[in-house]
Write a structure and sequence with these properties.
Blueprint lengths: L1 E8 L4 H4 L6 E14 L10 E15 L6 E16 L4 E10 L2 E6 L6 H4 L24 E18 L6 E18 L8 E16 L7 E14 L4 E4 L1 E5 L2 E6 L6 H4 L31 E18 L6 E16 L1
Parallel strand pairs: 5-7, 6-7, 11-14, 12-14, 13-14
Antiparallel strand pairs: 1-2, 2-3, 3-4, 4-5, 4-6, 7-8, 8-9, 9-10, 10-11, 10-12, 10-13, 14-15
Length: 331
């Protein structure tokens, strides 16, 4: 059986998605088409789906209060989707996202407004947790042949840092092929056969200033492969050119680059007082961290300025034409 819908306003589905999200969808239309057979076979009550596609156009999502634009998706498509419940396989030929915009605001406690806008509203009461049951031994496999993200703009207003800061990425492009995940064999990390990432027009600055602390016009990462079985990420090359950093040490010794980092990287300074309790040891059966290996790293035509206001006479140092090359870098 073949079924489809075209150009349906997403707001028509508000009674269904309102129970799952707190954000407001201002505009957007959806299209979809698929062929299905029901049931898929005597072994499964689910339908088998082939040649499915879905698309979103002109999607604009604002926060619960309606004042902040969180997401703008001019065009999102996924094609060649198939579901085989007998073999327990989900696959898709391609996923494409073009010229999207995403904004995230992190508060002082580390909460991210974007994520909180999609957290389901709290229920009046919660059912007690069911008793522990053995995990099912019927793993599913998922595979995406190609994923393309072009022209993605990202903005992060970072208020968990010691100095509230703004991070802007003018353009993110990602291409990946052969993405695969097996719920029975992979512990949260998918296989990625090949990928590349290009970042353009990255800038970080203090929230109350326009001058950039760090500016990276281009950053290209090519030849990426993620192997969850070996817990290994390999990268052929990382290349960035013509960036700049403006480092400043204040009179009290604080350095702007450190002060602007998110709290997860540079935690707030601990107040003086009694010694804090030691953190609990890590679990013995925790997943092993990924190892990263890069064949080539190149930094070219960078400039760094350093202003020191902590000395009796403020000092300024300026370096340009900074170049760094490294090979066979590994963690």
């Amino acid at each position: 059986i073949r079924d489809s819908l075209e150009g349906v306003p997403i707001t028509q589905f508000e009674p269904y998605y309102r129970q799952f999200v707190k954000a407001n969808i201002k505009t957007g239309s959806a299209a979809a088409g698929f062929t299905y057979r029901y049931p898929a076979g005597p072994e499964s009550p689910l339908p088998a789906i082939t040649d499915a596609r879905a698309a979103l156009e002109d999607l604009i999502v604002v926060g619960p209060k309606g004042a902040v634009r969180l997401i703008n998706l001019p065009a999102f498509t996924i094609e060649g989707v198939a579901l085989d419940p007998v073999k327990q396989v989900v696959s898709a030929a391609s996923l494409r996202l073009t010229n999207a915009y995403v904004r995230a605001d992190r508060d002082k406690s580390g909460g991210i407004y974007l994520l909180e806008a999609f957290i389901p509203p709290a229920a009046d009461s919660q059912k007690p947790a069911p008793p522990d049951t053995p995990a099912e031994t019927n793993p599913w496999k998922a595979r995406l042949e190609e994923a393309v993200v072009e022209g993605l703009e990202l903005i992060l207003n970072e208020n968990s840092a010691r100095q509230p800061s703004v991070y802007r990425l003018g353009e993110v492009s990602v291409r990946a092929a052969g993405i695969e995940y097996d719920t029975g064999e992979m512990d949260g990390i998918p296989l990625v056969e090949e990928a590349s990432v290009t970042l353009r027009d990255f800038k970080s600055s203090a929230a109350d200033a326009e001058d950039a602390i760090l500016a990276i016009p281009t950053l290209e990462v090519t030849g990426i492969r993620v192997d969850p079985f070996e817990a290994l990420v390999t990268v052929a090359s990382v290349i960035t050119r013509q960036g700049s950093a403006a480092v400043q040490r204040e009179a009290d010794g604080r350095i702007n680059v450190v002060e602007s980092l998110p709290a997860i990287i540079a935690p707030p300074e601990k107040p003086s007082g009694p010694a804090q309790t030691e953190p609990a040891p890590a679990e013995e059966n925790a997943a092993a961290p990924l190892t990263a290996r890069m064949d080539e790293i190149e930094v070219a035509d960078y400039t760094v300025s350093f202003k020191d206001l902590s000395t009796q006479t403020p000092a300024l140092m300026y370096l340009d034409q900074i170049a760094i090359k490294a090979g066979n870098v590994s963690t």
